[in-house]
Every structure is written in structure tokens, then in C-alpha cells.
Design brief:
Layout: H1 11-24, H2 28-41, H3 47-54, H4 56-68, H5 80-95, H6 106-123, H7 130-137, H8 144-154, H9 161-167, H10 169-172, H11 183-189, H12 192-205, H13 210-220, E1 227-233, E2 236-243, E3 259-265, E4 270-273, H14 275-290, E5 299-300, E6 304-307, E7 316-320, E8 323-327, H15 329-342, H16 346-359
Antiparallel strand pairs: 1-2, 2-3, 3-4, 5-6, 6-7, 7-8
């Protein structure tokens, strides 16, 4: 391993160093070393961004404290570099989607942020990046805000990950210069509820692993309630068990790392799954409940496949990895509705929100 680095400087700089070294009665090397050391200790433009991306796990911990735990302690809102980190990696999440669909409000929140930044530019006579906005959102460029609102109103309710990434390109580029936007306006646009909805995408964009999630949980110790729910559909039983904190548990007690177990039991089989399979399954079921027409032809995802009744067979069926489960039409529809409804209410919904912010989701 080399212990020295040979550098070449301009003759004028070498001359200035020699003169300064002579005045201070030190060697040129010692003087150059001191100047470099002092310079590297001084923050320069862009240093904040490079520090964030140099240690993304430390950045996640910082963002988790501020966004998820709300531990701002009166500090200023997130810096522009931190907001940029969130936007860049939220877009990256859809590049890693592997046939996933956009299942959370995160994409809608990001498009709302895009709209608000555009409205601020237009309202304050700032230059609008026409090529980006026209190319991505197919805007004419005559009435930017109104045209963007019309685009959002016509956007199909189910968006695959490749198109979602396409829609987020302006936010992940230099289309909007956050340095131009006043702090007060940024705080109104990047609200805490919006950032909390987007945070699971950041984890996915960083290719967050289960081990990293467990480490984050052990360090941050979020209070995620332990929940057990059982859903039955004919001869099929789905048990959702979330390990977490029991009600009334005393402070300082043993901390259970939050994790989810899904146990699917049929007449002749029992198969366990974890967070990845469950989150994708729940996402598809929720989308189908809200927009059945958009998923009338089913979907083949990363680990989950889904086919509603009447598409391939009279029965409805879904699959996780190599498992295929067929159910009569009424039973299938009842299962989809009950799972989606239960996971959107009460303690179970609270626990799932906490898990998304530890393990990531799209």
C-alpha cells in the first residue's frame, strides 16, 4: 500500500509555497500538508451531500429520528441535501421494483411535491424546465399548473414501477433547484406526513436488507405494537403475527425486534412467509379492492401472482413463490376484502406502518 501521494502543482503555486515557507521558516512539504489539512476540515459547497451518500446507513438513522420518531428537538427542518437524498433514493426504489406495483401513497405524495414545486416556480416567475416537464408529463407549457393538475386527474390508478420511476425523474434531477426555494416554503411542501409516507421508498431505494432493518430497530427502538390476526376463508387460514411491544410493557424491558410472520394454512399444507412476501401480497389485494377494473387481468409480480375470478378460471387464485391457492369466487373476494380492511384499521395498521419504515416498501 502506498504511503505517499505524488502531486503536481502549477509553477506559480510552487513559487508561492516556497516564499511562504521561507517566511515561516518551515519546509514546503509541512506547509502544504497544513494547508491541505485545514482545507479538508472546512466544509465546502456540496460537502453535506457527499457526507450523506458516503454513509447512507448513518443518514437513514438521522432521517429516521427526524421523520419517523419526530425527534427534531427544535432543530431546523431537513436540509436541502437531506431532501435531495430522500428524492433520489425514492426514485431508486422503483428501479429495484422487479415488477412491483406502486401500492402506497408514496407516489401520490411525490407527485404532489412535484406539483407544489412547479406552482411555486410559476407563481414567482422562475424559469421552468420545459423539456423535462413536457417530456415526462406531456404538458403543453401554456398553463403549467393547470396542465399538471389535469395530468394527475387522468393518471391511471395502478402504476407499475417503471412508469413510476419515469414520473419521478424531474424530482431526482435538476429540474427543481431547491436552493431557490425559501425555507418556509420548503417546510410547507415537504411536510412530515408526506416525508413519512415516502420514507419506506428510501429504504427500498437503498436496497435495505433485513439485517439492516434489525440493526436500525435495535438502535432506534421504535414502539411497534405486537399484534396477531387470523383470517379464515373456506378451508384456508391466514395468520398474521407481528412481534413487537406488548400493551402496558414497562420502560426498560427487553426489547423485541419488530418483525412479521405470515402463516398460510390449508387442508394439506402449512407455509410460513415474512415481510417481503406479505407486503407485496397486501399491496396487490389493496389495489384490487380499490380498483378492481385496473387489475381485472391479474398481475405477475416479484414474488406474488394474482388472478381474479373470471380471468383465467371461474375461481380466483393467488400465488407466493411456487405456491398456488385457488378459491371459489365469493371466497376469494371475501378474503381479499377482509385482509385489506383489517390491515388498514386499528393496531394492525399502526404496526404495519412501523414495519414499513423499518423494512421498506413500494
Amino acid at each position: 500500500m502506498l504511503s505517499q501521494l505524488n502531486l503536481r502543482f502549477h509553477k506559480k503555486l510552487i513559487g508561492a509555497l516556497k516564499v511562504r515557507a521561507g517566511e515561516e521558516n518551515v519546509s514546503v512539504n509541512a506547509l502544504a500538508e497544513r494547508f491541505l489539512d485545514d482545507g479538508l476540515k472546512t466544509a465546502a459547497a456540496g460537502d453535506g451531500w457527499f457526507q450523506l451518500i458516503a454513509d447512507p446507513e448513518a443518514t437513514v438513522r438521522l432521517l429516521y429520528r427526524h421523520i419517523v420518531l419526530g425527534q427534531s428537538f427544535g432543530t431546523s427542518p431537513l436540509s436541502r441535501d437531506e431532501l435531495r437524498f430522500i428524492l433520489v433514493h425514492a426514485r431508486e426504489a422503483f428501479l429495484r421494483g422487479h415488477n412491483r406495483l406502486s401500492t402506497l401513497p408514496a407516489l401520490s405524495n411525490l407527485l404532489d411535491i412535484t406539483r407544489d414545486l412547479l406552482a411555486w416556480q410559476v407563481g414567482h416567475d422562475r424559469q421552468v424546465d420545459g423539456p423535462w416537464l413536457k417530456g415526462v408529463f406531456r404538458l403543453a407549457g401554456e398553463n403549467w399548473t393547470e396542465e399538471f393538475d389535469a395530468f394527475l386527474a387522468e393518471l391511471r390508478p395502478v402504476v407499475d414501477q417503471m412508469y413510476a420511476e419515469h414520473l419521478l425523474r424531474p424530482l431526482g434531477s435538476d429540474c427543481f433547484d431547491l436552493a431557490e426555494v425559501p425555507d418556509a416554503v420548503l417546510a410547507e411542501i415537504f411536510t412530515l406526513p408526506r416525508l413519512k409516507a415516502v420514507f419506506p421508498l428510501v429504504l427500498r431505494g437503498l436496497d435495505w436488507s433485513e439485517e439492516k432493518a434489525k440493526t436500525l430497530a435495535q438502535e432506534m427502538r421504535p414502539v411497534i405494537p405486537g399484534v396477531t390476526q387470523t383470517i379464515e376463508a373456506g378451508t384456508l387460514r391466514l395468520e398474521i403475527r407481528i412481534e413487537g411491544q406488548d400493551p402496558g410493557e414497562r420502560p426498560g424491558a427487553w426489547y423485541n425486534t419488530p418483525r412479521l410472520h405470515l402463516l398460510i394454512t390449508g387442508q394439506d399444507f402449512v407455509v410460513p412467509y415474512g415481510w417481503e412476501a406479505f407486503s407485496e401480497l397486501l399491496g396487490l389485494f389493496t389495489l384490487y379492492t380499490r380498483h378492481p377494473e385496473a387489475l381485472a387481468h391479474g398481475h405477475q409480480g416479484e414474488r406474488i401472482m394474482f388472478s381474479p375470478p373470471g380471468h383465467v378460471t371461474k375461481e380466483g387464485f393467488f400465488g407466493i413463490d411456487g405456491l398456488r391457492i385457488f378459491l371459489p369466487a365469493e371466497t376469494f373476494e371475501a378474503l381479499v376484502l377482509e385482509l385489506s380492511t383489517r390491515c388498514a384499521e386499528g393496531t394492525l395498521a399502526e404496526a404495519l406502518t412501523g414495519l414499513r419504515c423499518l423494512y421498506g416498501d413500494v
